[in-house]
Amino acid sequence: METLILTQNEIEKILDMKDVMEVVENAFKLHGLGKTQMPAKIYLTFEKGDLRAMPACLNGKAGIKWVNSHPSNREVGLPTVMALLIYNDPETGFPLAIMDATHITNMRTGAAGGIAAMYLAKKDSRIFGFIGAGTQAKTQIMALKEVFKVERVKAYDINKKSLNDFSKFCEKMGIDIEITDAKNVCKCDVLTTSTPSRAPVVKNSWINEGMHINAIGADAPGKQELDDKILLRAKIVVDDYEQAIHGGEINVAISKGVIKREDIYATLGEIVAGVKKGREGDEITVFDSTGLAIQDIATASVVFEKAVKMGVGMKIKFFEVGMI
Question: Per-residue pLDDT for 31 more than 90?
Answer without folding.
Answer: yes
